[in-house]
Specification:
The chain has about 425 residues and is of the alpha/beta class. Helices cover about 20% and strands about 15% of the residues. It contains nine helices and 16 strands. Belongs to the peptidase S8 family.
């Protein structure tokens, strides 16, 4: 990978002895809700949304992601009719099973991945509409441990959640949260590194993570720790692009950035009823946390079509078929903008694709996908995500690195078979 730039440092070596032990999901300490829940809303704006240029209709002729379980480690995932196969994976914030979302962020992320289509109501769908979502609540800006300021979620909790997701059989794990600190401050996230290695190498999961947003205190002009992105051998890290295919002004660069995906003009699911949302507390949704689930959905499609591929083969294919920037890659967009149809079509693979010499047999046809999934073809789920929890604020108070969300600072109030 070469020497990191001035704003990056390398992660510690993986120590499997630090892997969190298997245990039921639960908060580390008793918690209480401190603020009212955030509600996503839909404005009358009819402008194009972040998934419009991905040619999903052509992609769905090949696969819709049936048979894949995608774990969303986030603020929880609320029940929604367009997430018909939602599974509760556990709650590290409060009581529950991961299917409550007081922040709205996790539900938006899940919708981008797997919202079912609903032609009768709108044109929105998740990238892999027949994939199953596992909701794991690992962070929230609305809850707090007793005696603490609002905000829950740190790298130790994330490590436990990754272990849980892997043990639940997630073929893809989406992490739309980022912990970033100056390297001089230090960050012991070795249990997270061990959990990521376990998920990829032992449990055969593809892990996708947000790159982070530079307008949220992550770019201090000095060597930075950016976790989980810096564990580049185990994580596919995603930058954000605008609707014109240009890198978003806020996307955080680094040597660990692998690819880029749409992260602006976001539309997804609201936590209220069966509504959609493109605003959170009145603010437009954008961020790398909403670009990551686009790639998680693509990973689910690839794993459905080519079920024998390893996690690293899936990661390599996504990078090899991206639209490369000049020079092949850079620290802003990595290998470039993802191309779902190219990633799923062997003939379109480039000559340097490491998988070109041995094409695997594709998985079931879309018609059998629907039967296997046991879900009708017309249920949609959408995700909107431009959020970063009040992590760095809490870090300053508690001395712990708390997870942020890839959301603009001005959006934060004072992640069935």
């Amino acid at each position: 990978m070469g020497a990191p730039p001035a704003n990056a440092v390398a992660p510690p070596p993986i120590d499997s002895r630090l892997l969190p032990a298997p245990a039921p999901a639960a908060p580390a300490r008793p918690t209480v809700q401190r603020t009212v829940c955030t509600v996503g809303s839909l404005s009358p704006d009819s402008s194009p949304t972040q998934l419009d240029d991905l040619d999903l209709a052509a992609v769905w002729a090949l696969t819709r992601g049936a048979g894949q379980r995608v774990a969303v480690i986030d603020t929880g995932v609320a029940a929604h009719r367009r997430l018909p196969g939602l599974i509760g994976g556990g709650d590290y914030v409060s009581t529950g099973d991961g299917t409550r979302d007081c922040d709205g962020h996790g539900t938006m992320v899940a919708g981008i991945i797997a919202a079912a289509t609903d032609p009768a109501s709108d044109r929105f769908s998740g990238v892999a509409p027949l994939a199953t979502v596992i909701g794991i609540r690992a962070s929230s800006a609305q809850f707090a441990a007793f005696g603490d300021a609002p905000g829950i979620g740190d790298v130790d909790t994330l490590a436990r959640a990754v272990r849980t997701a892997a043990d639940l059989g997630a073929s893809v794990i989406n992490i739309s949260s980022v912990a970033c600190r100056p390297a001089r401050s230090g960050l012991d996230d070795r249990p997270l590194g061990a959990a990521l290695a376990y998920a990829v190498e032992v449990k055969n999961s593809v892990v996708v993570a947000a790159a982070g947003n530079s307008d949220e205190g992550c770019d201090a002009g000095e060597p930075m720790i950016v976790s989980p992105a810096w564990y580049d051998d185990y994580v596919l890290t995603v930058a954000s692009m605008d609707p014109h295919g240009v890198a978003s002004a806020f996307t955080l660069p680094g040597p660990w950035v692998d690819v880029a995906a749409p992260g602006e003009t976001v539309l997804s699911l609201s936590t209220v009823g069966d509504a959609m949302a493109n605003r959170l507390d009145g603010s437009v949704l954008r961020g790398t946390s909403f670009a990551a689930p686009v790639v998680s959905g693509l990973a689910a499609l690839i794993r459905s079509r080519f079920p024998q591929w390893t996690p690293r083969q899936v990661m390599d294919r996504i990078k090899a078929t991206a639209h490369h920037p000049p020079g092949g890659r850079d620290d802003v967009v990595g290998a470039g903008a993802v191309d779902p149809l190219a990633a799923l079509t062997f003939e379109s693979a480039t000559s340097h694709d490491p998988l070109r010499s041995a094409p695997p047999q594709p998985g079931p046809a879309p018609e059998r996908d629907r039967a296997a999934a046991g879900a009708p073809a017309g249920l949609p789920t959408a995700i909107v995500g431009t959020a970063v929890l009040l992590a760095l604020l809490l870090a300053a108070v508690t001395g712990r690195a708390v997870l942020g969300r890839g959301r603009r600072r001005d959006l934060v109030a004072p992640g069935p078979d």
